Amino acid sequence: MLKRFPLLALPFVLGAGFWARPAIAQALIPHVPQLDYARMEQQGLSLAQEAAQLAQFQQYELALIRAQLATQLVPQNGQVWALLGSLYLQVGQGDKAIAPLLKAESLSREDPAILFALGTAYFRAENYARSAEYLRKGLALKADEPGAWFDLGNAYYMQKRYADAIESYEKSVELQEDFWPSINNIGLVLYEMGDIDGALEKWREAIAIDGTQAEPQLAVAVALFVQGKQEEALAMGEAALNLDDRYAEIDFLRENLWGDRLIEQTRRFLQLPRMRETLAQIRQSGG
Q1: CATH number among 1.25.40.10, 1.10.3720.10, 3.10.180.10, 3.40.50.2300, domain 178-287
Q2: Could you tell me which of 118, 163, 165, 162 has the C-alpha nearest to residue 137?
Q3: Which of 103, 106, 112 is nearest to 70 (CA)?
Q4: Helices (H), the chain
Q5: Which among 144, 172, 175, 177 has a CA at the least distance from the CA of 156?
Q6: Which CATH architecture group holds 124-177?
Q7: 39-109 — its CATH code?
Q8: Per-residue pLDDT tens over the stretch 221-265
Q9: DSSP secondary-structure letter at 74?
Q10: Would you say the CATH fold of 178-287 matches that of 124-177?
C-alpha cells in the first residue's frame, strides 16, 4: 500500500522544483465542465410534472423519487418543494412533509395551498396549535375553502377549544351547506360537552345529507343506547356496521376524532351480544 501524505505536506515532499513547472501543474488539474443550469431547470420541472402525473394515478412511491430529484435540480422553486411535501402527506409520512413544506413557504410566501398543507402536516404530527396557526394564515388569504375551515375546527377540537371548533365547522357549512363532515363533527364536540340531544340533532342532520355514511349512524346508535332506547339503538348500530365495520375498531374511531366520552360508551355498546353477533357475521361474510 502506498503511503498517503497529508495535503499540506505535498510541496515539501515533492521539492521546491515542483512549483517551477506551472505547465505540468496546470495539466494535473481535472477539467470541470460548465453546468447547463437552464437544462437542469428544465429537467427538474419535467421530473416534477411526471411526479404530479404519477400521483394522480396513486403511484406515490415513483412520484416521490422524481419529486426528490426535482428539488435537487430546481432548489429555488417553491412549487416543487410543495409537491414533495404533499406527496409525503399522501403516503402517510407527515413528519417528513414539514421540512419541504416550510422550504416551499419560504420560497412562495402567501400561497394558501402551501399554508393549508402545513396545517395538515402539523396536525398529523399532533402539533395542533401549530396546525391551527398555519390554517388561520391560509384562511386569511383564501377564506372560501370549506375543507380548510373543517381542518381548523379539528385542530381546535383537539385542543379542547370547543367553542372555536364549532365556529370553524359552522363557517365551513356556511360555504357548503351539504358539507356533512363538519356537521358530524359539531355532534362530536357537543357530545364531549355533555349535550347529547344537540349531538343527536347534528348527527341526524348529517345522515339526512348522506345516508351512506356509517359514522353518524353509529354515533346516533350509541347516543340512543345511552338514553336507554336499546332496540332503536341496535337497529341503527347494525345498519352502521353493515356500511363500514371499521367503526367497530377503537383505534379507527380515535383516528376519526371520537372523544373519550363517546368512545367509552361505544365500547360498551359494541359489547352487547347482538352487536357482537352482528359484527361476527359481517366479518365472516367478508363484508
Answers
A1: 1.25.40.10
A2: 118
A3: 103
A4: 10-14, 22-27, 37-56, 60-73, 78-90, 94-107, 112-124, 128-141, 146-158, 162-175, 180-192, 196-209, 214-226, 230-243, 250-255, 260-270, 273-284
A5: 172
A6: Alpha Horseshoe (1.25)
A7: 1.25.40.10
A8: 999 999 999 999 999 999 999 999 999 999 999 999 999 999 999
A9: S
A10: yes
Q: What is the pLDDT of residues 45-73, one digit of tens each?
A: 999 999 999 999 999 999 999 999 999 99
From CA 27, how far away is CA 16, in angstroms rounded? Answer: 18
The C-alpha atoms of residue 167 and residue 155 are separated, in whole angstroms, by: 12
Q: Which three cell numbers stand for residue 23?
A: 505547465
**How many whole angstroms from its chain centre is CA 166?**
21
The three-state secondary structure class of 212 is: coil
Name the one residue in this structure whose C-alpha cell is 426528490.
68
Domain parsing of the chain, residue ranges: 39-109, 124-177, 178-287
* One-letter amino acid of 126: E
